[in-house]
Amino acid sequence: MSDTSDSAVRTYIEAHRTAFLDDLADWLRIPSVSAQPDHDADVRRSADWLAAKLKETGFLSTEILHTDGAPAVFAEWLSDDPSAPTVLVYGHHDVQPAAVEDGWHTDPFEPVLKDGRLYARGAADDKGQVFFHTLGVRAHLAVTGRTTPAVNLKLLIEGEEESGSPHFRDLVEAHADRLAADVVIVSDTGMWSETTPTVCTGMRGLAECEITFQGPDQDIHSGSFGGAVPNPATAAARLVAALHDDDERITIPGFYDGIAELTEAERELFSELPFDEAEWLRTAKSRAPHGEKGLTTLERIWARPTAEVNGIGGGYQGPGGKTIIPSSAMVKLSFRLVAGQDPARIEKLVTDWVATRVPAGIGHEITFSAGTRPCLTPLDHPALQSVVRAMGRAFGSKIRFTREGGSGPAADLQDVLGAPVLFLGISVPSDGWHAPNEKVEIDLLLKGVETTAHLWGDLGGC
Amino acid sequence: MSDTSDSAVRTYIEAHRTAFLDDLADWLRIPSVSAQPDHDADVRRSADWLAAKLKETGFLSTEILHTDGAPAVFAEWLSDDPSAPTVLVYGHHDVQPAAVEDGWHTDPFEPVLKDGRLYARGAADDKGQVFFHTLGVRAHLAVTGRTTPAVNLKLLIEGEEESGSPHFRDLVEAHADRLAADVVIVSDTGMWSETTPTVCTGMRGLAECEITFQGPDQDIHSGSFGGAVPNPATAAARLVAALHDDDERITIPGFYDGIAELTEAERELFSELPFDEAEWLRTAKSRAPHGEKGLTTLERIWARPTAEVNGIGGGYQGPGGKTIIPSSAMVKLSFRLVAGQDPARIEKLVTDWVATRVPAGIGHEITFSAGTRPCLTPLDHPALQSVVRAMGRAFGSKIRFTREGGSGPAADLQDVLGAPVLFLGISVPSDGWHAPNEKVEIDLLLKGVETTAHLWGDLGGC
C-alpha cells in the first residue's frame, strides 16, 4: 500500500495501455447483441474471444458455460496461498442493440478513440468494465512479484444480461460449487461522476405482480346498469389509490417490517454527494420530485421501498367514448425492496392485502413473477473497506458511497452463493448506456485497472 | 273513451291485422343496417319505403330529410281542428347488424311468424314500434269518423340511431320550425314485461370526458427513479378513487345541486314493480348489486346520477412485466345525469375538480364530448296522463311507471323543440334488441296500435 507500489502500478499500466486498448477494441468489434437472434453467433464468438483472452492473460482455467440461451464465460486463477480469500467477479459480454440510424456518429461496432474516450457499443456497458480486470490482475502480479494472485480469482461473465438474464439463476445454481466465493464483485455499475468517485453499496430488490379484476361477464351498458353494479376499473383504481397514505408511505400492513431505518451517518453520507435536483429531474424527464414525506430524493430511490404502477388497463381505450362498464381491468405493480425485505414475504403481504380490498361482486387474481432480493453491504464490511482503499489509491481522492435504486442479477449471486456483493464500476452517467454514442472515459477505465491491481493485494492481505 | 269505442278499435285492428303484418314484413326485409357502409343503399331504400307507406296511410306530406349521413323520414298529417295540439312521434328505421352466423335460427332479414311472434332484425327495435303508428292513426279515424286526426300528427323517423345518431341534433336544429310540437312521443323503448305494462317517464342524461395524465417525457426506469417522481398511472387511479365517498356518493363539489330528490310517492311507484334482483343481476352479467347507500337498484339506475370509468389505461399492458414508470395514463369517465343536472354545468364542475386533484409534476388535459340532457316528465303532466289512459284501455290493466337509465337522442328533441318527451314503447326485455333472434310479440304490437288509436283522441280532447 505504499506510494512506491502505486507508482509502479501506474508505470505498468502505462506500458501496457496501447495493447490493452487495442485488445478491447477487438472485442468491441464483435456485435454481441443478445436480444437479436441474428447476432446469436456473434454472442458465441464474443464468449470464445473472451475465454481465449483470459487464457492468454494467465487464467489457468477458462470455460464456456452453456445455458438454454447465450453462453457465459467462467475463468479461474487460484492463488498459491492456501489462506487466500476467494473473489468472484461478475460482468457480462453481451451488449444492447445499436445501429448508425439510431443517431451514432460512427459505426457502433467500429471503436473510435477520440478526446480521451473510446466510443463503441459496450465500451462502458459492460465490456470495458469486464476487460479492466485482465490488465488489473497482471499489474497486481507485476508489482507484487507474485506468480499467482493474492486472492483466488474467479470471473463469471454472462451473455444474456441485456436480455434480462433469463437463465442466469439456473446457471448459478447449476455451478454453485465452482462459483463459491467469499465475496462477489460486480463490475457492471457506475460512479457518481468523473470528479466524485464512489462505490455502490447496495441495490434494491424487486417483487412484481399483475392483478386482474373481473366484473360483469362482458362489457355492459353504463346507462342501463351504471351506478348499480361494481365496476372493475374503479376497483383497480381504488386498490392503486389505497397503496399509499397521504405521506406517500405504503399502507400494506407489515410492509416496512424488518427494514433498517437509515442512520444519521448514512443520511449524512448521502448528503455529501453533490446532488443537483434540477439536473436529476432532467435525467428523470420529470417535472417535480415526489415521494415519501420527510426524505430526500436520494434517500427515496436508494434506501426506501416503493410501490409503483407499471401498467393499468381496462375497458375502452380507443378514440372517442364508449359508455360501458368494463368486464375486467388489470394492474401491474412492482415493489422495490430494501435490505430487510424478502420478496416471498412481500408477495404474501400484498396477496393478503389485495384480498381484503377487492369489493363484493368483483373477482380477482394476483400473479407474482420471480422476485429479486435486495442487497446491501454494511459500510464497515472489511471487503468494502478494501474496495474503498483500492479506489482511493487509484483515484487519489476520497471515495464516497452511493446505492442503486434498480435491481439486478447480482442478487442471485448473493442468494445462491451466500456471499456479500460489492460493486466496482467506473462508468459515469454521461457514458450513455443503452444510448447512441456509448463511450468510456479512458482515464477512468485505467483507474479501474489500477483499482483492481491494488484490490487483490488488499483483499489478500499483502 | 267508451267500451264501445274500445271494442270498435279492436274490431278495426283485427280486420287489418294481416295486411299490417304483411306490410311490416316487407319493411323488415330491407336490411337497413346504418353501421355497415355496404348497406347504405338499403338504408336509403328503407327510408323511401317508409315514406311511400306513410303517404299510402294518408299522411298528407311525406319527405326524405337528408343529413350528412343516412336519411330520415318526416311525415305530417295535420288536424282540421285549429285548436288541436301537435304531437311529434320519434322512431328510427335503421337496424343493428345481423348475420345468421351470429346465432340466428333463421335469416334475420326474412321475417318469420311463429307462436305469436314475428322474428326479424328490427321487429322490435324499432321498425315494429314505428309501424304500429300507421295502423293506429287509421283506427283512430275509423272509430271517430274523422277525416283528419284529432291531433296534428308529425313523424320523424331517423336513419342513424344504431350508429349513435351523429347527425340527429343538426337535423332537428335545421328543421326545428317544422318539427315544432306540444309533446314528443318516443316509440323506441320498452315495457317492464308482458304482464306489467308500463310507461317510461324519463331518461338519464350524459356527460363524457377523457382525461390524460402526463408524467415523465418518456417511460422511465422504475428502479432508478421509482419512489421519487410522480407516476401518472397512480395519479389517474387516485382521481378515479376520489370520485366517490364511502357511501358511493359522488364527491365532486356541487355535483348533486339542483337534483330533485326522489319523493316517497315515486319510490313507492318503483317498489310496486315486480323487480327480481337475482334475475336482474343475470341480465347485468354481474355478481352483486353495488351503489349509492340507502337506495334500491331501480332507484340507483333510474333516479340517481353516476360517475363510471368506461376505460383506463397507462404504461405496459402486454404479457409479463416491465419495470417502468409510465410516461402517461388516461381515463375515460361518463356521468349519467338526472333531472336538474345540466351537462354543461357538470362539465365545468368536473373540470374544476380534476384540476385540484392532479398532483404537482403531472400535467393533465380533459376533453368532453357533446353532452346529453336528462329528461323527466312529471307524473301529473296531462299528456302523460293521456298516455296512461290510452294504454290502460288497450291493456285493460293498471299502467305502472318506469324510467330508463340510458340516454338518447330524445333529449335533443326536448332541448331544441322545448317540448316534453313521453315514451310509448311496447317492447319487452325478451325481445332481444341488438341480439340474435330479435322478435316482437304480435299481441303487444297490436296493443301499440290500439294505444295510439285511443291516444290521439284523448290528446285531442275527443
TrEMBL record, chains A, B:
List residues of the Peptidase M20 dimerisation domain. Answer: 202-359
Which controlled-vocabulary keywords does the entry list? Hydrolase, Metal-binding, Protease
* Molecular functions (GO terms): metal ion binding; peptidase activity
Q: Which Pfam families match?
A: M20_dimer, Peptidase_M20
Question: What Gene3D superfamilies does this protein's entry cite?
Answer: 3.30.70.360, Zn peptidases
Q: Which GO terms describe its biological process?
A: proteolysis
Task: Tell me which InterPro entries the record gives.
Answer: Cyt/Met_Dipeptidase (IPR051458), Peptidase_M20 (IPR002933), Peptidase_M20_dimer (IPR011650)
Q: Which PANTHER family match?
A: BETA-ALA-HIS DIPEPTIDASE (PTHR43270), SUCCINYL-DIAMINOPIMELATE DESUCCINYLASE (PTHR43270:SF12)
Q: What is the protein name for this chain? A: Dipeptidase
Question: What organism does the UniProt record list as the source?
Answer: Streptomyces beijiangensis
